[in-house]
Write a structure and sequence with these properties.
Layout: H1 3-6, E1 10-14, H2 29-34, H3 36-42, E2 46-50, E3 53-56, E4 59-65, H4 72-84, E5 88-94, H5 95-102, H6 107-120, E6 125-129, H7 132-138, H8 142-156, E7 159-163, E8 178-181, H9 194-210, E9 214-216, H10 226-231, H11 237-250, E10 254-258, H12 279-290, H13 295-305, H14 308-311, H15 341-344, H16 351-364, H17 366-369, E11 372-378, E12 382-389, E13 392-399, E14 405-406, H18 409-416, E15 419-423, E16 432-433, E17 438-442
Parallel strand pairs: 1-2, 1-10, 2-5, 5-6, 6-7, 7-8, 8-9, 9-10
Antiparallel strand pairs: 3-4, 11-12, 12-13, 13-17, 14-16, 15-17
Length: 443
């Protein structure tokens, strides 16, 4: 990966819930294209787009876009709107669907045809989801297959990203431009972050030792939103959002934000199960009821433990339908009118502006995307590390718990010698980190 790709911040979209441009209640490619200027203003340079292909004879048809979402012309429109705002589009491919559609023997040749087609339409990167499945299929030829796929992408001058569940499958930088890890959220338990911090530590050490580049998100369509998982109905959403963003932006790991995180989206409104058309959500609800939960308890489980909140329609304005569409969306009315783009873009104190400041900082300061990493301390509550590039060094301190934390004297001494660049809390004491507090200190 080039330096500009490592210093950039990435955004991922679930088209069906992003923006409906033709008032059928389902988000689409033209809806995404119409908001590229806003995503560019926030500072994103790459956008992952998922689940866009049609079907033929019961299999994924990679030659056509799902007509509900758009067509080839819509991809070209998306490309030009993205390019105008200095954004590149990365297209997602499911590994199981690829093998099912192309077959094991013809996979490479058919894949090359598809990549050439979408490159000509303007796609500038591809991400293969569940790349581990290729290991299951090809066994000892797994690395050879990845090298062939990467060479196809190199020939087209596009980014090659692979989702890997088993990080140890990738041992060097010759197989993927970026290793995408989507399961970090599985390691997060409220007020118990040791496993999560150790993952971040190991990935950053791999960047240094093996020159492997990683991308990581905290929310995607397979998980509940991180705000729902950590905070539930109560808690300081803005403080936690800022703490997580400081951590994501300052690590060597490429930061990937999921749609809505820039407006602190969460499942924070009433839920009418009768209006939801998602069969998986309805099935989960019925199982919760069968287990003995009452209706309210089952609905809370839906919000906090399923991917319901990650599929909710984006809130673009404070109207009843959130500006997502002029007709009711897939998940019913949007009862809570808070957390919407229109209001947040008028509020300089909103998280959008804070995130933009961090993204610009990552682009300016090479210490974060390119610099050396050193772990100072971590336990179940706090993660402290340094990032350095040439003669510039930063100390980053993260407390994701809902309680204050007394710091070690050696860390306090380091803090006292530096200049506070960012602090998401009004208070600052070199001896204590408050709940959900994050600090960026230049040493």
């Amino acid at each position: 990966m080039q330096n500009k790709e490592l210093k950039s911040t990435y955004y991922q979209v679930y088209l069906e819930s992003f923006l409906d441009s033709n008032n059928d209640g389902i988000g689409d490619m033209n809806g995404l294209a119409s908001k590229m200027s806003i995503l560019g203003q926030v500072g994103f340079n790459y956008v992952f787009v998922s689940d866009i292909f049609g079907e033929k004879d019961g299999k994924t048809d990679f030659n056509q876009i799902n007509p509900i979402l758009g067509d080839d012309k819509a991809i070209v429109n998306l490309y030009w709107k993205a390019k105008k705002n200095r954004i590149k589009v990365i297209l997602d491919f499911e590994s199981r669907a690829l093998i099912d559609s192309f077959g094991q023997d013809d996979f490479i040749g058919e894949f090359e045809k598809i990549i050439k087609k979408y490159h000509e339409l303007g796609i500038r990167g591809i991400r293969i989801l569940e790349t581990d499945y290729l290991k299951e299929i090809y066994q000892d030829k797994f690395e050879e297959i990845l090298k062939n796929l990467r060479q196809i992408c190199l020939d087209q001058e596009i980014l090659f990203v692979g989702e890997i569940a088993d990080i140890d499958l990738i041992k060097d930088d010759n197989l993927l431009d970026m290793v995408y890890y989507s399961k970090a959220s599985d390691l997060i338990e409220k007020n118990s972050y040791g496993k999560f911090y150790r993952l971040l530590d190991s990935l950053q050490n791999n960047i240094k030792d093996k020159d492997i580049h990683y991308g990581l998100d905290l929310t995607n369509t397979s998980h509940p939103r991180i705000m729902d998982k950590i905070l539930g109905e109560t808690g300081d959403t803005l403080a936690l959002s800022k703490a997580l963003a400081i951590m994501m932006i300052t690590m060597g790991i490429v930061p990937i934000f999921y749609q809505g995180e820039e407006i602190e989206a969460k499942a924070e409104y009433e839920l009418d199960i009768e209006k939801i058309k998602d069969s998986e959500i309805k099935e989960a609800y019925e199982k919760f009821i069968e287990s003995g939960l009452d209706k309210d308890q089952a609905l809370e489980k839906i919000k906090r433990e399923t991917n319901f909140s990650s599929k909710l329609a984006m809130r673009w304005d404070p109207t009843a339908l959130g500006g997502f569409s002029k007709v009711e969306n897939y998940y019913g009315d949007m009862i809570n009118l808070d957390n919407n783009y229109k209001d947040y873009l008028k509020d300089a104190d909103s998280f959008i502006f804070y995130l933009n400041e961090l993204i610009m900082l990552r682009k300016r300061e090479s210490a974060f995307g390119l610099g050396d990493y050193e772990k100072i301390f971590l336990d179940d509550s706090v993660y402290v590390y340094k990032k350095s590039y040439k003669d510039t060094t930063y100390l980053i301190l993260i407390n994701l718990t809902d309680d204050f934390y007394e710091l070690d004297e050696k860390i306090s001494e380091m803090m006292a010698e530096g200049e506070v660049i960012l602090n998401n809390n009004q208070d600052y004491e070199p001896e204590i980190l408050d709940a959900y507090q994050a600090l960026l200190i230049k040493l």
